[in-house]
Amino acid sequence: KSTGNGNLNLGCGMITNSTSLTAAIATGSSTVDATPVAAVGDIQDSDNWGGAELLPFTVKQTDPYEDVNPPPFTPCSGDNASKITVGSNVTDNSRADASGVICAKDISINGTADLGSATYVVDGGNFSAGAQSHITCDGCTIILTSSDTSTTPPIGTVTINGGAEIDMSAPTSGTFDGILFYQDRRAPESTTIVNKINGNSDSLMEGAFYFPKQQLQINGTAGLNFN
To answer: What's the chain's average pLDDT?
Structure first.
């Protein structure tokens, strides 16, 4: 779903496995540069698609990351239980466990932060970027998961607020090759829990956004480039 004045440049096609009669929507003054646009359900016709080839009622796609799982990690404890917040460089090897994964209860950034090249496990919390944040990383993956083994573990969401500038790229090798944001498949399936990219984000994000059970919504006057 693209709304408001969102400018979405995917640099490729897009498909949703939603069976809804409104599986893919572009409204308001938003523009979407992606072709084809496909859905298992219906696609709402709109000038906002920019002349893209629309393919409603298409065949369901297999999960391209069905064999990728959250990495083993030591549950956040002690100093690691605190949030990762603003800093000139928050990649700190002292925070990493024996497998080299950095665990944090929450990542909440409202200023400038360089995440470096690392795999960040967010244990039960969220990833959020405030309106004035500037976040960079070269070869990082954000994993939204939980050390809670119950049937309904707390698994967080991604929110990038208006005005944030994000320049992040996924790894080019290893388990999370090409994946920038990964949400655990144990996250609740929901039509009301939404992962959001909002406002005036003048950003470049290189890598996959994997939210197999929840929405990813582009709002406002976002000026985003996805590769």
So the answer is: 81
